[in-house]
Specification:
globular, 7-stranded mixed sheet, FAD/NAD(P)-binding domain, alpha+beta, 7-stranded antiparallel sheet, about 20% strand, about 525 residues
Length: about 525
């Protein structure tokens, strides 16, 4: 049986970073295991192609939540990457770091904002150059998006409402309105696989196995000594490192005997260590508004014409520009929903297309979307294995809108998301609000709309939280030679999109494993 120094489970955003950094030591043998295939699918590498990957089961776990009690028992579709690069290969490419207060508020030694900033800077290759907040020469490309007439109008309208202009949401402050930056360069996606893993795979001490689902962590007593997979078993001399993400890491721990005692007893899994694995799930809740546009300059219009589709494709093939080079978020506003709030608590998203279903067919009319999500979440849910079969999807309970503040921020944030398009100059482009429409006005009506239409915005965290399941070095309590390094260890979800944070945490995690931090 082959032996390795480190076995990394999951080749997603964190796993690719760990495999790359650990294999820099040629004296260490690294095994990286991924349940999905290689990232060869065409639409992975085209930025706007993320919409084509929502339902592609070969690269997407395509989970569905349990019925949500505060959403009329609706089940929430939950895409997650099942491919080299994980969700960084299928996400919307938006590059956000969150707010200083998020990390300082964790209260975990070594994980405040100042401790993480060097890892954000190390990871990125910032197209604007290096400064106190940004780095160059890192594996992850961070680039600017093309300007667009509608986005300019959105930003001007937000500014007219008193929202300050902000050219860099990842600089000194997040608050304000402007264009997003994205993990894109020369019109192509920069994922953890393309940025970190490509060069690392050339090293003889790194072995990458795809289409290899890990079914169990193997223990000798309380010491992790390897893993079992659908293809056989692998042994490690030093550590097993879980990078499966917020849903898969807790599921694998539970199936291996690390988790809540009553759950393991119900599953018939022998107990190795009793910990609150899978508890504390957080995510950003999200609601969209649709607007009919007076001018035929949206992506809806491009897709409605075969000639314009051909032009769009040719523009991308020849110049790597145009609509296909755009991320899921184009422009944004980070706002305080009430004057007494000390920092932005809502994220307003703007994109120059609209569709009834994300990843679905675009509306036949000229349209754009203005959306909102809450950033500092109070509601918490859980993730639990359903059975001893690792191939069966875990039970996901988000428990959205469980607190009064969560409900209030969504209602107040939705008001702002509707006010911006009704303010000039963006108002001059508006025919009417398509959804929710004029019939929805009162707070009760807005809350009902959110309950009926709100969804995940794909930022799940906190199911193997530091301080509860892992220590500040990301070692699992109560066992040996086992760490978790992914979004699941965050004590709470940061403000805004989380992929940049996952990658920075994995950079620090690699230093912890190697004794450099």
């Amino acid at each position: 049986m082959e032996q390795f120094d480190y076995i990394v489970v999951g080749a997603g955003s964190a796993g690719c970073v760990l495999a790359s950094r650990l294999s820099e030591d040629s004296n260490k043998r690294i095994l990286l295991l991924e349940a999905g295939p290689r990232d060869t699918h065409l639409w992975i590498h085209v930025p706007l192609g993320y919409g084509k990957l929502f339902t592609r089961s070969e690269v997407n776990w395509g989970y569905e939540s349990e019925p949500e009690p505060n959403l009329g028992e609706r089940r929430i579709f939950t895409p997650r990457g099942k491919v080299l690069g994980g969700s960084s290969s299928i996400n919307g490419l938006v590059y956000m770091r969150g707010q200083r207060e998020d990390y300082d508020g964790w209260g975990i030694p070594g994980w405040d904002f100042d401790a993480l900033l060097p890892y954000f800077r190390r990871s990125e290759n910032q197209c604007r150059g290096a400064d106190a907040w940004h780095g160059v020469g890192g594996p992850l490309e961070v680039g600017d998006l093309e300007r667009h007439e509608l986005c300019d109008a959105f930003i001007d309208s937000a500014a007219a409402l008193g929202i300050p202009r902000n050219p860099d949401f990842n600089g000194a402050a997040m608050e304000g309105t402007g264009y997003y930056q994205a993990t894109v360069r020369r019109g192509r996606r920069s994922s953890a696989a393309t940025g970190y893993l490509r060069r690392a795979e050339q090293r003889p001490n790194l072995k990458v196995e795809v289409n290899t689902l890990v079914t169990r962590i193997d223990f000798d007593g309380r010491k992790a000594v390897g893993v079992s997979t659908v293809k056989g078993s692998f042994k490690c001399r030093r550590e097993v490192i879980l990078c499966g993400g917020t849903f898969n890491s807790p599921q694998l721990l539970q199936l291996s005997g690390v988790g809540p005692g009553p759950l393991l007893q119900r599953l018939g899994v022998p107990l190795v260590a009793e910990l609150p694995v899978g508890e504390g799930l957080q995510d950003h809740f999200y609601a969209r508004t649709f607007w009919r546009c007076r001018k035929p300059l949206t992506v809806n219009d491009e897709m409605a014409s075969l000639w314009r589709q051909a032009r769009m494709g040719l523009q991308y093939l020849l110049f790597s520009t145009g609509p296909l080079s755009v991320a899921a978020g184009y422009a944004a506003a980070f706002v305080r929903t009430r004057p007494e709030i000390k920092r932005p608590d809502a994220q307003i998203y703007f994109i120059n297309f609209s569709s009834a279903k994300r990843g679905g067919v675009l509306h036949a009319f000229s349209g754009f979307t203005c959306s909102v999500s809450q950033m500092q979440v109070g509601s918490r849910g859980s993730v639990q294995a359903r059975s001893r079969d690792a191939r069966e999807a875990p039970a996901i309970r988000y428990n959205y809108l469980a607190t009064e503040n969560d409900r209030r921020v969504m209602v107040d944030g939705l008001k702002i998301a509707r006010r911006i398009p009704m303010t000039r100059p963006l108002r001059d482009y508006v025919v009417c609000e398509e959804l929710p429409g004029e019939r929805v006005q009162t707070d009760d009506e807005l809350l009902a709309f959110v309950r009926e239409n709100g969804e995940t915005v794909f930022h799940p965290t906190s199911t193997c939280s530091m301080g509860k399941v892992v220590d500040p070095s990301l070692r699992v309590f109560g066992v040996e030679n086992l760490r978790v390094i992914d979004a699941s260890v965050m004590p709470s979800v940061p403000s805004g999109n989380i992929n940049a944070t996952v990658i920075a945490m994995a950079e620090k995690g690699a230093d912890l494993v190697c004794g450099r931090a």
